[in-house]
Design brief:
Blueprint (H helix, E strand, L loop, with lengths): L1 H17 L3 E5 L17 E4 L17 E3 L7 E9 L8 E8 L6 E8 L6 E8 L2 E8 L6 E8 L1
Parallel strand pairs: 1-4
Antiparallel strand pairs: 2-7, 3-6, 4-9, 5-8, 6-9, 7-8
Keywords: Signal
């Protein structure tokens, strides 16, 4: 219990220093049949290694994916906590998207699991001021996902 409270205190402290609000989103299922990124921009992507099935959860950090390391002088632009609306007997694919017209560029995107149950990042795409994350949720899983976007 102490570790949870300390993590929450650090999380709140982080919010106060950066003046970035954390958005809690209850996400509807969307199948990534087509990229949401603008048509005229070719995305720079990082893709996770595909496996035949999702690995068993044994406490590792698999499922997380980071698009590029942070750069000197960049700042936190978006922090979203994503919750899945309902449990399902089948694996579900979800797509998270943001467009930041006031940003010059996006330097880093992180998709991190913050609970015991995990989602598995399939792909992170970045094009100009747009970013999308495609992730898979195992059957009957209820993950908490933190997505952070850094840039200028």
């Amino acid at each position: 219990m102490k570790s949870i409270l300390i993590l929450f205190a650090l999380f709140v402290q982080c919010l106060c220093e950066n003046n970035v609000t954390t958005t809690l989103k209850l996400w509807d299922k969307t199948l990534p049949t087509k990229s949401t990124l603008r048509n005229n921009m070719k995305p720079d992507s990082v893709t996770a290694k595909e496996t035949v099935s999702l690995p068993p959860d044994q406490g590792g950090n698999y499922g997380d994916l980071i698009y590029r390391s942070r750069q000197n002088g960049d700042s936190l632009l978006v922090r979203d906590v994503v919750l899945i609306p309902s449990l399902d007997a089948n694996e579900q694919d979800f797509q998270w998207y943001t467009s930041l017209p006031n940003a010059r560029s996006i330097s880093s995107v992180r998709m991190l699991n913050i609970g015991r149950q995990r989602a598995y990042t399939l792909r992170i795409d970045v094009a100009g001021q747009d970013a999308q994350v495609v992730f898979r949720v195992p059957s009957y899983a209820d993950p908490r996902v933190l997505i952070e976007v850094y840039g200028y």
